[in-house]
Amino acid sequence: MVRYHHLGNLWLTLATIGSLGFADPAAAQDAGRGLELMRASEKGNCSICHLVPGIGLPDEAQGNIGPSLEGVGARLTPAELRAQIVDARAMNPETIMPPYGSIKGLADVDKRYRGRPILTAGEVADIVAYLSSLR
């Protein structure tokens, strides 16, 4: 019963993401801008938790809480990357990764992000473009 519940939530979440424009393949995608967003401390700041190739920091200055993103473009499809960035809780309810494209179920949110996600649909698309290039 729990499995069906989680699968239902996953499909509902993916359908919702699609309806918000996060899954729109026609969205402008700029891998260079995605890399800049991943480096930006007020936006993605991905290297605080992940090892991110090409981010311009030595490996030892990057995080190891989350998995290395080396080769992630060969392991995950753009849709899977997008879903992880928007709200990783859909795939793993126990994740500590922040939902960068969702505000659902959040508490104690920084004033700058109350009522809006950290990343826009276009910013998510740009980050997905960069991560998809990591093969």
UniProtKB/TrEMBL annotation:
Q: Which UniProt keywords apply?
A: Heme, Iron, Metal-binding
Q: Name one GO molecular function term.
A: metal ion binding
Establish whether keyword Lyase is in the entry.
Answer: no
Family matches, as Pfam families: Cytochrom_C
UniProt domain Cytochrome c: residue ranges? 29-135
InterPro entries in the record: Cyt_c-like_dom, Cyt_c-like_dom_sf, Thiosulf_SoxX
**What domain of life does the native source organism fall in?**
Bacteria
Could you tell me what this protein is called?
A: Sulfur oxidation c-type cytochrome SoxX
Q: From which source organism is this entry? A: Pseudaminobacter soli
